[in-house]
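Question thread 4412

I'm putting together a teaching handout and wanted feedback from people who do this every day. The idea is simple: show students a protein as raw sequence, then show them the structure tokens that encode its fold, then repeat with a second protein so they can compare. Below is the first pair exactly as I plan to print it.
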Amino acid sequence: MVEERITDGRRIAELLASELDGREDDELASIAVANADRDVEPTTDGARAYDVTLALPDSDDQRIARVFVHEDRARLEFEMGQDVAVEAAEDVGLRVRPKAAQPPRTLVFVESGAAVKRATDVVKAVSRAEN
């Protein structure tokens, strides 16, 4: 049996959204997918698909990352917990780099459907650090 590798950016982002929003384990209970653009089309530079938010005690939900879709991958752009995101992404073997922006951001690349679980682990690590 031949297994196809999922490398479509939109499909990868959909799988990631399902992991983040569809599971009810303790670490993901405070994570939500918000402001989804259901008609997003992948672009070379990446088109914003949705936000990843964290429910903090005694506060409104905070956006910790945005997810962008490219033709061949998805990327998480972390706004909170950048140092944690770098370390966690490197630990699970995902490509990561800083983005020179104001305020700074950390980019984590999700290049296949198989990498979605590892990207979820990065989101969990950032969530733990921010709580």
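The second pair follows. I'd like the answer to focus on this one:
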Amino acid sequence: MTGRRRAVATLLAIAVVAPLAGPVVAPAGGHGNHLTARAQVSGDGSVVVEQLFLLEDGYVAIHESDGGDPGEVVGHRKLTSGYHRNVAVAVDQSWWESTSGNTSLVAVLHDDAEDGDEFDPETDSTLFSLGTLAADEFAVRQGDGSVTVVAMSLSGHTVADSLTVPNAQLAEDGHLVVRRSDEETGAPGEVVGSTSLAAGAHENVTVPVNRSRLPGNDSRVSLWVTVYRDDGDGEFDRESDEPVRVGGTPVQSRVAATLGENGTDGGTGGLNVGVNTATATPTTTAAPGDSTTTTTTASGDGETSMPAVGVVGTLAAVAAGALLAARRRGDG
């Protein structure tokens, strides 16, 4: 049995036995193959895909935007199946040098049609999940240094008074600012926390959060983490400090958080945010600036969680999609 057929068979088996196995961690929202990329500044000729999930080994490719659709490929990276976060993808040097100002790119997931050969957009087809292209358009501009933020992580326990941001890059001294999503529009609203950072790359940044500005216990809240410039005084001031923007869009990341009373996590004091409500153990952590890989079937866009109810149907749909994809490749 080939690796691809084995993967499809495994998915089908999971869908069959799920009712007997109890709660199952599945791709959040049933998205399957998917990714998230947001506005950013690049200082080194690479762009960052915030997070992605691949059902099988494949590629993340960076395309020029053709009115929002994927155009010419300007960079790519090979990835194993599973969940990846903070994925840096180098773009073609010639394209990079010919580009200036703000531009739009589209990050797209592709399969590996020939099982390990070089990437070819003509044969390594774009991937879909339940009929939707696994892609995301984002704005990027060149700068003297990179500006990115990745707030998504795998969630664990529930607590209240701080938020841990896995990755942030600042081109100059500034701030990470946490804002609660507006309940009606979903846009960044009230500021609920901030911390000052020096220029450079940072990992696992703890941002204090004002619990009194968040809802009651045992609930979920949507938050935005935004990179702000400092006005020179070294302290965050919402009136004078401005977000770093690319084409009018702030450099920011959106997450969902599970809330509780202060100290309910045993005193660690961190507000846990993530793509689902289950705890997963990372098995491979790459070097700073590279991607972090977790071998688990959990994934998501940081805004929803997958309850046990409905998981079987989701797995069946994903398995069916994978089977059709395998048949298509076999027929080709």
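Top answer:
Good format. For the second protein you could add a caption like this: The radius of gyration is 20 Å. Residues 148-285 form a domain with the Immunoglobulin-like fold (CATH 2.60.40).
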